[in-house]
Give the backbone structure.
Amino acid sequence: MSAETATIIGWILVAADFVIRITALIIIPRDRKPTAAMAWLLAIFLIPFVGILLFLLIGNVKLPKKWRVRQAEVNRLISERAEGVDLAPDRSQWPTWFATIAEQNQRLGALPVIGGNRATLIGDYQASIDAMTADIETAERFVHVEFFIVSLDVTTKEFFAAMERAVQRGVTVRVLLDHISTGRSATHKETYAELDRIGAKWSFMLPVQPFKGKFQRPDLRNHRKIVVVDGRVGYTGSQNLIDRSYNSKSNIKRGLQWQELVARVTGPTVTALNAVFLSDWYAETDELLVDDENVPATAIAFDTSPDALDCQILPSGPAFDGENNLRLFLSLVNAAQERVIITSPYFVPDEAMMYAITSARLRGLDVQLFVSEIGDQGSVWHAQRSYYGALLRAGVQIWLYPGPYILHAKHLSIDDDVAVIGSSNMDIRSFNLNFEVIMLVRGASFVADMREVEAGYRAVGRQLTLEEWEREPASATFLDGIARLTSALQ
């Protein structure tokens, strides 16, 4: 290569670099949070060619138009069916702040508050799968299963066997599983083959199959966990359908075990969980099950006992215009009058969430956060740690759940009678990139059960103090800060 040619190439690269930077300044801040925009601009200015390639690959949080149109269509159908039907007859007993949050949730996710329910918390990993299996054995019409990760293994084999027996009885079994995350599991090929063998109807969620015309941003994932049997019993929570070690060689080597919390629900609100499943099924398969398996809430008996619960199912994700789960979390923390207790395995809040949590402490509330002492994802764990100092200085109690367990449960409770449980972490990924589902519950008995779970976390864990945190080495806090910056890339 001649010197003249090298000079020309050099000027071309300089010009391209300049164009990339100017274009990024124009395009990236549009309709994007300032923290996310600054993170992307920093990446592009430091590594312009690599940064712009990353932005083109994962910079768009919108799903294909088909998904968004179908979500709007499902929301319209739900709203039409709920119009004029009072599913929460004791709403006169609600405090004003709860009524306004319920209204917000319904406007965002279409599903109303429904009364007359019961719910049981299950914190034992195998026991939750066994309970689901037992309910599937009673199925007469349909079984709907939706998980971020589905795996055929020693832990889940009886669950699969129950689905097979249901199919043999003439029950329709439908299964949704996330394409990328299930595809990474050690037994994914055996899992797909088993679903085919037993006769289940199944589909990938958000498949990344460009040669089949199916492609969107690869890290937009469906993280929901739902099981519904006949529209009368349902499950939701943090747990995937896989062994407690996730069958990962690195996890097994470290001895990691996942600690979860799942809610078993009976009553009319199960039909709302079913509606979320049906919306995902429609989006992925083009099959709209309007009548056959869309059980109306009015067809399920209300529990009229004193411990009956008011529940509201809230779906969230990139098919919605607003960050539904974040708005709910913010509303609850800001409404709390006595205490806020948060459990999240991946705690990477945005600025608004941090202000809400620390402001709760400034109002004199008891604020506690339960997280794992060790992490299974290095970058997320370091990003999470970057918030500990500010939280501790504000007076938030941070409780560390001991290794080798990963506290993967996801729930939040305020005061003595309101809580949420579901699949959503309190992190930027769950707020913006993942499809999630959470259940809002109003009922003192349910929160009392959650308080027992939280007491169990304290009994086995330890409290992180500000004095201990301030002894952290600079090398560790440096990594925390870097991870915090990259966590904003969305």
